[in-house]
């Protein structure tokens, strides 16, 4: 494979990470080909419409400290609007609907004290866990062999705190608290700047959104890359020998000096490496599963909840929809409610039943008018035919301390990127962009010396 014809670099995957790598390397004068398995770019960013309004089936929100994705969006002319956050939030808790303001819902004083206590203990643990290398923390082994649920019980968290943490776990990793490693949870939340920054609207990760959807950012990156991006190209096999790589799809092969694998760790398992990778790489891919989270959008003639003084933001401990947001384009209509739905109970249902369950939840929170939308759409990431799952990896106990070192360590001209490999805002669009810049710098250094 010496002096191969073809591009300098093949990038596998045209999500935010892969496109960022391709863009950065192209800007440095390198010849790049991006092979994407789907018939579209964007990966876990995928925009459709409901009642003619663009809505995101995957990533939606951005926050002020997510500076890399904001800079990229600004460069590409993609603007944000503030997330609607005016009025009272609602919580359906223990069979009653109540209103509250701010991020922490209205619970009893004792319950609120317990939430603060647990949050404080969580943040204290985070101080000991270094970003990018959580396995080196003095407490790493203990934390990694405990689940979030196990830890909550060990510190005697009350039932309401545990239920609130379960909602956080479902929306953050798409899994239950007894499925995710405590080391992963602490590291992930630290990478997002803390629990408050991760969950808040004002000043936090939900502060703003893109009125035309997040996928437009990927589409604009891909447009500038032109025919370097090849869709419907599932990478099945990568041959490597230290002097070059050959990347195989069902329809052909591309030979290059290096390859950047920009797919979630779990999807690396579907690619055969020849010769096989050193110990730990294949095991990592098998032990870094993606969670599952789904979304439902209902559109109405107007955002009628706003006239009732409600923000459209809600939390629920009952039913398929457990968090809602108002993503309407304005006061005049249409009104659009976004509901995060629990994949475990929602995804196996038939389309009509899913719609009925989602509308039932919206009506339980915002009143009977929510039962009759003018349009409705939902999306199940677990049901994607290719590269299923999301929002991000739900890393189980033991994986970080056993395989974590392999997450992004290059092998023989094979480099790794994707939001799961980021130090800051891992799991988010911002982490994907950051990881793309990191990988592009690594590859540029490699090309300069090999
Ligand atoms: C429901 C949901 C809600 C979310 N909400 C937010 C949010 O509000 N804010 C936020 O910042 N983030 C959010 N996220 C997370 C965000 O979408 C991801 O962090 C980000 O899109 C990951 O980008 P990536 O490039 O790392 O990976 P991906 O987007 O997964 O890109 C990987 C690409 O590789 C392709 N691929 C996989 N295997 C192969 C193969 N063998 N050959 C060729 N191509 C392959 C895939 O098709 C995909 O296009 C959400 C995600 C979901 C699913």
UniProtKB/TrEMBL annotation:
<dbReference type="InterPro" id="IPR050703">
    <property type="entry name" value="Flavin_MAO"/>
</dbReference>
<dbReference type="InterPro" id="IPR002937">
    <property type="entry name" value="Amino_oxidase"/>
</dbReference>
<feature type="binding site">
    <location>
        <position position="420"/>
    </location>
    <ligand>
        <name>FAD</name>
    </ligand>
</feature>
<comment type="similarity">
    <text>Belongs to the flavin monoamine oxidase family.</text>
</comment>
<dbReference type="InterPro" id="IPR001613">
    <property type="entry name" value="Flavin_amine_oxidase"/>
</dbReference>
<dbReference type="Pfam" id="PF01593">
    <property type="entry name" value="Amino_oxidase"/>
</dbReference>
<feature type="binding site">
    <location>
        <position position="340"/>
    </location>
    <ligand>
        <name>substrate</name>
    </ligand>
</feature>
<dbReference type="InterPro" id="IPR036188">
    <property type="entry name" value="FAD/NAD-bd_sf"/>
</dbReference>
<feature type="domain" description="Amine oxidase">
    <location>
        <begin position="16"/>
        <end position="443"/>
    </location>
</feature>
<protein>
    <submittedName>
        <fullName>Flavin monoamine oxidase family protein</fullName>
    </submittedName>
</protein>
<dbReference type="GO" id="GO:0016491">
    <property type="term" value="F:oxidoreductase activity"/>
</dbReference>
<feature type="binding site">
    <location>
        <position position="235"/>
    </location>
    <ligand>
        <name>FAD</name>
    </ligand>
</feature>
<keyword id="KW-0560">Oxidoreductase</keyword>
């Amino acid at each position: 494979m010496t002096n191969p014809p073809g591009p300098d670099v093949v990038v596998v995957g045209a999500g935010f990470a892969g496109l960022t790598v391709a863009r950065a390397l192209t800007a440095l004068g390198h010849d790049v080909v991006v092979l994407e398995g789907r018939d579209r770019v964007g990966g876990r960013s995928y925009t459709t419409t409901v009642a003619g309004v663009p809505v995101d089936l995957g990533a939606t929100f951005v926050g002020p400290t997510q500076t890399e994705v904001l800079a990229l969006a600004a460069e590409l002319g993609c603007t944000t609007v503030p997330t609607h956050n005016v009025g009272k939030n609602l919580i359906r808790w223990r069979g009653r609907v109540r209103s509250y303001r701010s991020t922490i819902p209205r619970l009893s004083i004792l319950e609120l004290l317990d939430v603060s206590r647990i949050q404080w203990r969580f943040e204290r643990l985070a101080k000991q866990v270094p970003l990018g290398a959580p396995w080196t923390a003095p407490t790493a082994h203990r934390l990694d062999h405990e689940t979030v649920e196990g830890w909550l019980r060990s510190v005697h968290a009350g039932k309401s705190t545990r239920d609130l943490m379960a909602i956080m776990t479902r929306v953050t990793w798409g899994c239950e608290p007894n499925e995710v490693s405590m080391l992963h949870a602490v590291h992930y939340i630290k990478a997002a700047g803390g629990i408050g920054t991760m969950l808040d609207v004002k000043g936090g990760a939900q502060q703003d959104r893109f009125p035309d959807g997040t996928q437009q950012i990927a589409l604009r990156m891909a447009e500038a890359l032109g025919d370097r991006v090849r869709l419907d190209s599932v990478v099945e096999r990568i041959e490597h020998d230290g002097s070059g790589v050959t990347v195989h799809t069902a329809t052909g092969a591309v030979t290059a000096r290096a390859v950047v694998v920009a797919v979630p760790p779990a999807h690396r398992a579907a690619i055969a490496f020849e010769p096989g990778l050193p110990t730990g790489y294949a095991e990592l891919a098998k032990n870094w599963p993606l969670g599952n989270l789904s979304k439902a959008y209902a559109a109405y003639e107007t955002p009628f909840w706003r006239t009732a003084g409600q923000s459209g933001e809600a939390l629920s401990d009952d039913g398929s929809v457990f968090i809602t947001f108002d993503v309407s384009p304005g006061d005049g209509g249409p009104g659009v409610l976004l509901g995060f739905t629990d994949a475990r109970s929602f995804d196996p249902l038939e389309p009509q039943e899913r719609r009925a369950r989602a509308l039932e939840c919206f009506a339980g929170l915002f009143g009977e008018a929510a039962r009759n939308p003018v349009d409705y759409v939902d999306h199940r990431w677990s049901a994607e035919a290719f590269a299923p799952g999301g929002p991000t990896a739900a890393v189980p106990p033991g994986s970080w301390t056993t395989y974590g070192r392999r997450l992004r360590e290059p092998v023989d001209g094979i480099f790794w990127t994707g939001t799961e490999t980021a130090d800051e805002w891992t799991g988010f669009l911002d982490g994907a962009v950051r990881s793309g810049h990191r990988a592009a710098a690594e590859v540029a250094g490699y090309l300069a010396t090999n």
